[in-house]
Amino acid sequence: MAHAYTPGLKVTDSFLVRKRRILPLEGDVIVKAGQQTDPNDVVARTELPGDAVLENVASRLGLPPEEVPGCMLKKEGDHVEKDEVIAKAKSFFGLFKSVAKASRPGTIESINKITGQVLLRGAPLPVEVKAYLKGQVVEVEPRQGCVIETWATFIQGIFGIGGETNGILKMVCTSPDEPLTPDKISGDHAGCIIIGGSIVTAAALQEAIKKNVRGIVVGGFNDQDLRNFLGYDLGVAITGSENKGITLVVTEGFGEIPMTDRTFNLLRQFEGKKACCHGATQIRAGVIRPEVVIPMAESDLHKDMEVTAGALQIGTPIRVIREPYFGRIGKVSDLPPAPAPLESETRARVLKLVFDDDGKEAMVPRANVEILET
Fold first, then answer.
1. What is the pLDDT of residue 5?
2. Could you tell me if 356 and 252 are in contact, meaning their C-beta atoms sit under 8 angstroms apart?
3. Residues 334/313, Cβ–Cβ less than 8 Å
4. CA-closest candidate to residue 177, choices 222, 216, 219
5. Do residues 135 and 146 touch, judged by C-beta distance below 8 A?
6. Is the peptide bond before 176 cis (omega within 30 degrees of 0)?
7. 95-130, pLDDT tens digit by residue?
8. Residue 80, helix vs strand vs coil
9. What structural domains does the chain harbor?
10. b/e per residue, 191-212, with b = 16+ CB within 10 A?
11. Cβ-based neighbours of 324, under 8 Å, separated by 6 or more
């Protein structure tokens, strides 16, 4: 039988999660190997250089550039405040004085006698990297960050928006095919990650933000609602940096799609437990998936249950990850061994699948599907 080794979404009750928590620039790592972490613990910190601005001192003083260094009242390394005089020049036999003032607070980084400009650097920007996971530091990378491990129930989604967050899991829908509507969200859900069913409406998303909900996990989301919510068409950009006050993880696809029973039941099983999630998504090279991580208690560990990607075979549950069937779920019904012609007039290895929702069959390239791991 023909096989294809296709990475897919992980949905498993026991998985070893490893996360590298790395600074954008070298800095200080403040944890040690073996240390236990909570999601909000800071594990490393640094400072990014502030914004720089060029002050055209020669023009303001009406002097040749080479004379600017002799007129400076401040030297390299000095801190200045906004509107503080940094240079002064006399003209007309000392009767008139010209001054150059700082346009913003900062530190004088350089004085250029060729251009007559002064480089003023703003205050550094502090950056902190948090643990994200409740787990253990297993490796420290000096001046850069660390690696954190935890055994967890691990659920990957197909699409998401918003950054890393954490909160208590709360079920707001009673079945995988129930829509998440505004009336199901209350003030009791503040600080929580709430679990919906088939779709979250735009109104419900806005209501969740008002009620300070930290995250939503749901089966589907309307693409028009997504455009309206973001204010722009997302295209193929990586998500995760949206500053909307909430993180959304979509487990199945666009449209009203019931969450798979296994995913819904796993989330329901851990209601009341603290979970971490993020919405970062990238479907091109360097795939990034949104995820929900529910760290396990030591007494619940079953390390022999780690899941790895398997081979396609008849009956394998899969999800289509490209149009025209994006997000639809089905099972492999046939694996033709020979490449087949596509609409683009190229040839590729394909498979046949039967969709779960309507029982219809379709043929798609194997590169356009991913295995639903269980």
1. 36
2. no
3. no
4. 219
5. no
6. no
7. 668 899 999 999 999 999 999 999 999 989 999 999
8. strand
9. 52-121 (2.40.50), 158-289 (3.50.30), 317-373 (2.30.30)
10. ebbbbbbbbbbeebbebbeebe
11. none
- DSSP H or E run through 202: helix 202-210
pLDDT attached to residue 6: 41
Nearest to residue 161, comparing CAs of 53, 247, 252?
247
At residue 333, the pLDDT reads 92
Q: How many CB atoms are closer than 10 A to CB 141?
A: 14
Tell me what pLDDT residue 3 has.
35
- Other CB atoms within a 10 A radius of the CB of residue 368 amount to 20
pLDDT of residue 65: 93
Amino acid identity, residue 120? L
Measured CA distances, 276 to 40, 73, 268, 295, 374 (Å): 10, 53, 15, 8, 20
Give the pLDDT of residue 142.
Answer: 94
pTM: 0.73
Angle between helices 223-230 and 202-210 (to 10 degrees): 40
Residues forming a β-bridge with 282? 288
Low-confidence ranges of the chain (pLDDT < 70): 1-8, 91-96, 235-237, 284-286, 298-311, 373-374
Spatial distance between the Cα atoms of 295 and 170, rounded to a whole number of angstroms:
16
Residues 6+ apart with CB under 8 A from 16: 149, 150, 151, 303, 306
Nearest to 267 by CA among 194, 317, 205, 328: 194
Q: Is 85 helix (H, G, I), strand (E, B) or coil?
A: strand
Please report where in the chains the tokens 């253990």 appear, as a residue.
136
